[in-house]
Write a structure and sequence with these properties.
The protein is an alpha/beta fold and 430 residues long. The protein is built from 18 helices and 13 strands. Bound molecules: pyridoxal-5'-phosphate (PLP). Residues 103, 105, 140, 217, 250-257, 304-305, 357, 378-379 line the site of pyridoxal-5'-phosphate.
Length: 430
């Protein structure tokens, strides 16, 4: 299997090259050159998600130095629960939040980390011995990446987040690390953090023989595992109910949704794929008008979806013509007031407490007719206790994974919004 750039400016590369590069050298995004058909009946009958993943994802690592590691990688990445819960009324909930940081990004981050660990320091041509991973985060990405890489050989991680700009529990998850993971609270905004990561890539002295990566959500190594949970859940759903479900996906940078479209391309039994966004409505506006107009992001209750220029739309436009995309999918924006209402009605209407992101998808499902629909739950509500608890009127139980992290001591350095300060911290031992 080779991976080509959406912009067509580079020769297709094997899997390892694509994940080490992150972004293709021509500025495009890597996508697989083909989607080998999977067998949904075999997926549904597989003894575990990990063993189904080995079969479905094996072709994507073919002819790569990691080919023989696929089994190990899948078992190390897909090692937590993935419940598909029937809520009645033609609706099921796919809970993607049972990983170590209680959000769906654990799937992608753990798969990518498992790959890097097996790549670095093995003397493969063109592969560095060690790697520095820089992540600017406004919440969930940094925690998932920190957790996934913590304690892995050959990788150092630096997480940058805006001081005071994330929820208290998100901040704890970003700063409860030691060893190879360091956290920096930046006196500035998320945009400052991103600019610092960009600047650090060009800073002399930081590389010193090691690789530099940003492990951000455009990395193709994060999308393959995300395709897998759609392959699995749609196959299991059809085996249980004899029908092909549609999906409603809470969307920001559209990486999670691309997983669903790739699953469909692999032959998994997905019907329509609907994207739910918050008030950052570039994608719904494109569906409504045909005009694709990125704009600055606005802050909402569903903060992990505050994206004004969703990079992964480039992959969707690469996969489908606009008319085709309109035929099999759609998008709808949900404002903060509605998010609040859906959360407060959730326990009565669906027997569930939803996080603000999941609430956008639940709202879209509520406006549709008969199912079957699978609503994708992207984070555990306990991560957003300060929003959710006043709306439902009671405390939300903290899941054991999250509780474990919240018990760990915090360790964080506060720095100014300056590339020089970041680089000097990174090159000096602590
Ligand atoms: C990142 C995130 C999203 C958005 O996912 P994209 O792949 O960026 O569309 C939705 N919900 C939660 C909880 C997230 O952390």
């Amino acid at each position: 299997m080779r991976y080509r750039s959406t912009r067509g400016g580079v020769e297709p590369v094997p899997f390892s090259r694509a994940i080490l590069d992150g972004l293709a050298p021509d500025g495009g995004l890597y996508v697989p050159t083909s989607f080998p058909r999977c067998d949904p009946d075999r997926v549904a009958a597989a003894p575990s998600l990990a063993s189904a993943a080995v079969e479905v994802l094996r072709p994507f690592l073919r002819d790569d130095v990691l080919e023989d590691e696929i089994e190990d990688i899948c078992r190390s990445a897909f090692d937590f629960e993935l419940p598909l819960v029937d809520l009645g009324n033609g609706t099921a909930l796919l809970e993607l939040f049972h990983g170590p940081t209680a959000a769906f990004k654990d799937f992608g981050a753990r798969f990518l980390a498992a790959c890097f660990e097996r790549l670095l320091g093995r003397g493969f041509p063109g592969v560095p011995d060690s790697m520095l991973v820089l992540v600017a985060t406004s919440g969930d990405t940094g925690a998932a990446v920190a957790s996934a890489f913590h304690g892995r050989r050959g990788v150092e991680v630096a997480v940058l987040f805006p001081e005071g700009g994330v929820s208290p529990r998100q901040e704890h998850q970003l700063t409860c690390w030691d060893g190879n993971v360091r956290s920096f609270a930046v006196r500035g905004t998320f945009d400052d953090c991103q600019a610092m990561v960009k600047g650090a890539f060009d800073a002399p002295g930081l590389r010193r023989g090691r690789g530099l990566s940003s492990a951000n959500s455009i990395n193709v190594g994060r999308l393959l595992p995300q395709a897998m949970y759609y392959v699995w859940s749609s196959s299991v759903f059809r085996a249980r109910h004899g029908a092909e479900p549609g999906f409603v996906v809470p969307s920001g940078n559209v990486g999670n949704s691309v997983g669903a479209f790739w699953a469909r391309a692999l032959g998994a039994p997905l019907d329509r794929i609907l994207l739910a966004t918050n008030e950052n409505r570039v994608v719904p506006d494109w569906f409504a008008t045909g005009d694709y107009r990125p704009r600055p992001s606005v802050r909402t209750l569903a903060n992990a979806m505050d994206v004004g220029n969703p990079s992964n739309m480039e992959r969707l436009f690469d996969l489908h013509e606009p008319a085709e995309l309109r035929g099999i999918s759609g998008a709808q924006a949900v404002d903060d007031e509605t998010i609040r209402r859906v959360i407060s009605e959730g326990p009565r209407r669906w027997g569930r407490v939803f996080c603000p992101h999941t609430a956008t998808a639940m709202r879209v499902r509520e406006g549709l007719g008969d199912g079957p629909w699978i609503v994708v739950a992207t984070a555990h509500p306990a991560k957003f206790d300060e929003i959710v608890e006043p709306l439902v009127g009671h405390a939300v139980d903290v899941p054991p994974e999250l509780a474990r992290l919240l018990e760990r001591p915090r360790r964080v350095s506060t720095i100014g919004p300056s590339v020089e300060e970041l680089v000097s911290r990174l090159v000096s031992p602590e």
